[in-house]
Every structure is written in structure tokens, then in C-alpha cells.
């Protein structure tokens, strides 16, 4: 039996959440925050946070067609390269001191989880996308990584389609996940 993904040895701690959950991390010794926001959103660094805060702006669209249809800004390869550059900085700092990176977007489900997936593969190395996605789903069960961000990351990391292939079963089960979610809501009413 393969080891559980929660046993992954990562060079730095990585967390993910929605914007409304950021203050839940105030006592968790964060050193870095990466905010993925809609274009035009002002950067809001929590008053309690004293570390490094980066912000990248694009909408949660998964293709140029969606961006055109919704008059939205699609994530670009250079923006995903910025995310990976931030990951490289976290990796470098983690060699000399503890790092805890929090990545968030509005809901903590798509853009931020795609960024975390890419950062996990970057930290673990190619060939470990399945472990990275499993770990991501353990720390953020509602993860549904943005496909365009994942495609850009796959290309930039030289993974030859691995990130997209590993993500495919989750995306194929999306309709069932939505039905289960609505059923759960109906039972709770």
C-alpha cells in the first residue's frame, strides 16, 4: 500500500483558503501570502500579518473563449510563471528558515487550488502530480483547480501533460460532486 499523501515531506508548509477564511490563519505563523484576486481588487494585507504578500489578478475562467464570452481576464502563462517564481522564493527561504505560505482566492476552490497544485508539483518534482493532487484534496477537499492555470503550470514545469492527466478524473466527476453538494444542502435545510 502506498504511503498516505499527508505523509509527504514538503520543504515548506502550504495552506489554501477562501478570502473570508484568511483571519483563521492569524495564529498559524504565516510567513507568506499569495492572493489571487479579480482584476481591480485592491491588495488587502491583514493587519496581523508581517510577512511577504503578493497579489496576482485574473478571473476564474478556464479558456480564452470563456474570457471573451464573460468579458473577463484569463490567467496567462506569465502570471502562472509569477506564481511559480513566488514558489521558488519560498523554496529558497525554506532552506534557512521555516516557511508557511497561504494561497487564497475568493472561494478557495479553483484559482488558489490550481496555484497550490502547481506549487506542490514544483516542490515535489515532476512525476509526483498524483501525490500532489491527493495532498491538495486532503488539505482542501473542495479543491477544483482551474484548468487553464494547470495547463500553464504543466507547460512551465515541463511536465508533458502530467498535471492535466492527473486532474482529469476529478474534472470528469464534477457533475456528480455538484449533485452531491446540492443533496447535502437539501438535507441540511
Uncertain stretches of 5 or more adjacent residues: 1-5
Number of strands: 4
Sheet of most strands:
4 strands, parallel
Give the oligomer, counting copies of the same chain as homo and different chains as hetero.
Answer: single chain
The ordered string of helix (H) and strand (E) elements is: EEEHHEHHHHH
- pLDDT averaged over residues: 92
CATH top-level class: Alpha Beta
Portion of residues within helices: 40-55%
CATH superfamily: Protein tyrosine phosphatase superfamily
Total domains, how many? 1
- The CATH architecture comes to Alpha-Beta Complex
Question: How large is the radius of gyration?
Answer: 16 Å
Number of helices: 7
The N- and C-terminal alpha carbons lie at a distance of 40 Å
- The outline comes out as globular
Q: Which topology does CATH recognise?
A: Protein-Tyrosine Phosphatase, Chain A
Strand order of the largest sheet: 1-4-2-3
What percentage of amino acids are in beta strands?
A: 5-15%
| Structural class label | alpha/beta
3D structure, described in words:
46% of the residues lie in helices and 13% in strands. It has a single domain, classed as Protein tyrosine phosphatase superfamily (Protein-Tyrosine Phosphatase, Chain A), CATH 3.90.190. Strands 1-4-2-3 form a 4-stranded parallel beta sheet, with helices on one face. α2 (77-94) crosses α3 and α2 packs across α5. The protein is built from 7 helices and 4 strands. The radius of gyration is 16 Å and the shape is globular. With 189 residues, the chain is of the alpha/beta class. The chain has helices at 64-69, 77-94, 111-124, 129-139, 147-157, 162-172, 174-188; strands at 13-18, 32-37, 52-57, 100-105.
Amino acid at each position: 500500500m502506498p504511503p498516505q499523501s499527508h505523509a509527504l515531506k514538503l520543504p515548506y508548509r502550504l495552506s489554501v483558503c477562501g478570502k473570508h477564511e484568511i483571519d483563521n490563519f492569524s495564529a498559524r505563523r504565516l510567513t507568506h501570502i499569495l492572493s489571487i484576486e479579480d482584476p481591480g481588487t485592491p491588495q488587502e494585507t491583514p493587519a496581523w500579518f508581517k510577512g511577504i504578500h503578493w497579489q496576482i489578478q485574473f478571473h476564474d475562467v478556464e479558456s480564452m473563449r470563456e474570457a471573451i464570452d464573460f468579458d473577463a481576464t484569463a490567467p496567462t502563462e506569465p502570471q502562472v510563471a509569477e506564481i511559480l517564481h513566488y514558489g521558488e522564493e519560498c523554496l529558497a527561504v525554506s532552506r534557512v528558515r521555516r516557511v508557511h505560505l497561504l494561497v487564497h482566492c475568493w472561494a478557495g476552490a479553483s484559482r488558489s487550488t490550481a496555484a497550490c497544485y502547481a506549487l506542490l508539483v514544483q516542490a515535489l518534482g515532476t512525476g509526483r502530480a498524483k501525490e500532489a493532487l491527493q495532498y491538495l484534496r486532503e488539505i482542501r477537499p473542495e479543491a477544483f483547480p482551474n484548468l487553464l492555470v494547470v495547463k500553464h503550470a504543466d507547460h512551465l514545469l515541463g511536465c508533458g501533460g502530467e498535471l492535466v492527466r492527473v486532474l482529469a478524473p476529478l474534472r470528469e466527476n464534477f457533475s456528480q460532486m455538484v449533485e452531491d453538494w446540492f443533496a447535502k444542502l437539501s438535507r441540511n435545510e
